Amino acid sequence: MITCQQLAKIFKIEGFTFFTGVPCSILKYWLNYLDGNKYFRQITATSEGEACAIASGFHLATNRIPIVYMQNSGLGNSVDPLTSLINKEVYSIPLLLLISWRGEPGIKDEPQHIKMGRITKDLLKTLDIPFSVLPQNEKGIKKTIKKAKRYLKKKSLPYALILKKGTIMDYQIEKNKETSFLTRERAVELIVDNFGGKEIIVSTTGKTSRELFDLRETRRQNHKADFYVLGSMGCATGIALGIALQKPKKRVFVFDGDGAVLMKMGTLATIGHYLPKNFCHIVFDNNAHESTGGQKTVSDTADFSKIAKACGYRFAKVVFKEKDIKDSLSKIKKGPAMLVIKVKKGSRKTLGRPTISPLKMKKSFKKFIAH
Ligand SMILES: Cc1ncc(C[n+]2csc(CCOP(=O)(O)OP(=O)(O)O)c2C)c(N)n1
């Protein structure tokens, strides 16, 4: 294992000071360390592809080598810039990719990480990106980063470091938790309490789905009306749109997160264009990637309700209090509608994870929405 201070020293010596990316829980201690650090620059991107673009711009402007951090799921979002911008057939840009390894073969992980975990190395090989799995000790890490730098300098092409879980030691920082806001769990409960049992819910990846799942379990309710999107960050909205357009008589809700909305914000324009009347977008906005450790998103400077309206949504509102949630839901007569609920960071320590297999869930969900 390595401490954040030791890792920072290595990056400093080798001249890596610029970081951009999307977080992963494996990277959380390092991202905690970067948070507010004066020496390093950290830009939170809304998607990994965007991070590759920002990093490319950084290189063009400074001739220095940036680091793009991501979960291996984010490699999917990066394939286009990695094959049509950064590669040797096009602009040949040196990026150091720091990729966390979820779904590492032999280590138990969630279903959404298994495939990418298995193919991470092969995908990098296909992309002609050389890589090293970061060793678990300071000396090995130092050597590997030096080797990566030599390649980056010589070839002016990307090099990837694969980061295993447990490589970086714990580093905690005090994150401000606004106390006046509701918890997301309570907000989820309030919305579900307003339902009559026929509503369809598509919930986003991470803790939102886990909280909805737990709520159903606690209440001994069936999960058949819920579609828990396990990976595919940002895709819950598109899935809900696809359903809403085919099932115009059913009310379709998407339970979304600010990070997920930002990752695929284009979907708001698609919704505003096709105008499904039965579509309701609930955004639990905690201004954080809470599921991966609470790293700040850029939602505090993006007004989702205004963006939704500008895209064509018929109704959009920001709410803060329990009472406003109920009132606003009753005011939604015609969609597409958006309710942005400002919630506080944090979640229950005892939060479970869906225990029913994705295939089983899909089967009962399809049956539920068929009628
Ligand atoms: C493409 C991709 N990048 C990164 C992740 C890791 N990840 C899982 S949940 C999450 C945070 C989602 O943030 P938000 O939508 O705001 O929901 P919150 O966690 O705050 O409930 C991230 C970054 C992922 N699953 N997929």
Class from secondary-structure proportions: alpha/beta
Number of domains: 2
**Shape category:** elongated
- Strand tally is 14
Q: CATH homologous superfamily of the largest domain, by name?
A: Thiamin diphosphate (ThDP)-binding fold, Pyr/PP domains
CATH class of the largest domain: Alpha Beta
Mean pLDDT: 96
How would you write the strand order of the largest sheet? Answer: 2-1-3-4-6-5
CATH architecture verdict of the largest domain:
3-Layer(aba) Sandwich
Q: Might you state the CATH topology name of the largest domain?
A: Rossmann fold
Q: Give helix % range.
A: 40-55%
Sketch the topology as an H/E string, one letter per element: HEHEHEHEHEHEHEHEHEHHEEEHEHEH
Instruction: Say which molecules are bound, naming each kind only once.
Output: thiamine diphosphate
* Rg calculated over all Cα atoms: 21 Å
* End-to-end separation: 54 Å
Low-confidence stretches: none
Tally of helical segments: 14
Strand content bin: 15-25%
Largest sheet: 6 strands, parallel
Structure characteristics:
binds thiamine diphosphate; 2 domains; 6-stranded parallel sheet; Rossmann fold; 14 strands; 16% strand; 42% helix; 371 residues; alpha/beta; 14 helices
